[in-house]
Amino acid sequence: TWFGRELSDADVSKYLADEKNPRHVQHALLQIQQRMERGDAAAKTWYPQLIALSGSNETEFRLTVAWLMGFDNSSPQFHEALLKLLKDGEPIVRRNAALALVRFNDASGREELVAILQPFAVKTTASGTIASSLPEGATVARTTLLARVGQPDGKIVEIRSPLPGRIQKLLKLNGAQVTQGDEVLSLNSDENSVWEALRGLSLVGTAEDAAIIESYANSTEASARVRDQAKNALDAIKSRNRDLRS
Question: Using CA atoms, how far apart are residues 238 and 206, in angstroms rounded to an integer?
């Protein structure tokens, strides 16, 4: 959605509080991001509201706020909030929090960054029969409908993607019987998420992460941009290890 109209400070405060209208909140968050990027100290006015939104029931607010908090790594309140978001139930929120924590020179999200480089298992929340699943290799956005589960009582439960990416493997084909909690498919992360994770690991990664990073550096399927970032991450990790040994 395009939020090109410049908001006054009063409008930002008003929109930020209008949680019943998600478009207003998103517009205000974008305006705050632009102010933070410009180094506008007035953005601090809305920090208490940003921290409050980090506890919102709306995933879209939490994931955006997690990203925004990385723009001011001098705020202890943001740091504390990000550590809480690192335990969020939604993977997209955890990922944004992990990336933002890197800017605080905090490696608490390292495992989450590594997880971005690995297939993500999507599980069903209902028992029944799988129907209308997307094919392997399909590119999906977050909230894309991945499959439907037909329950014995006739109700249909939708399985939507928690992340942007590409379907790596279907573990349950159309017509298969599934039980709540079963893994139905796996997702590979989208290129931008992989690149961001590699950039984060270049700062907080350890020797334990070298093998999976190297798989991207040597991949024939990854883009040149991703391969280059993987090589940079490997070089940075090796350099840190040399410094520790010396």
Answer: 9
Strand order in the sheet with 128-131: 156-160, 145-150, 128-131, 177-178
Instruction: State the Cα–Cα distance between residues 203 and 224, nearest whole angstrom.
Output: 20
Q: What does the pLDDT read at residue 245?
A: 58
188 vs 116: CA distance, rounded Å: 8
CA distance 48 to 1: 25
Spatial contact of 82 and 69, defined as CB atoms under 8 Å apart: yes
Q: Write the CB contacts of 37 (distance below 8 Å, at least 6 apart in sequence).
A: 71
- Tens digit of pLDDT for each residue in 213-223? 999 999 999 99
Give first-to-last CA distance, the chain, whole Å: 51
pTM for the predicted model, two decimal places? 0.91
The tens digit of pLDDT for each residue in 6-59 reads: 788 898 899 888 888 888 999 999 899 988 998 889 899 999 999 999 999 999
Q: What is the DSSP letter of 154?
A: S
Neighbours of 153 (CB within 10 A): 6
Catalogue the E-assigned strands of the chain: 120-123, 128-131, 139-140, 145-150, 156-160, 165-170, 177-178, 183-189
Rounded Cα–Cα distance for residues 101 and 67 (Å) = 9
Provide the pLDDT confidence category of residue 167 given band limits of 50, 70 and 90.
very high
Instruction: Identify whether the C-beta of residue 103 lies closer than 8 Å to the C-beta of residue 155.
Output: no
Give the mean pLDDT of 186-193.
97
Write the DSSP symbol of residue 160: E
Determine contact, residues 230/213, Cβ cutoff 8 Å.
Answer: yes
The CA distance from 29 to 227, in Å, is 32
CA 71 to chain centre: 16
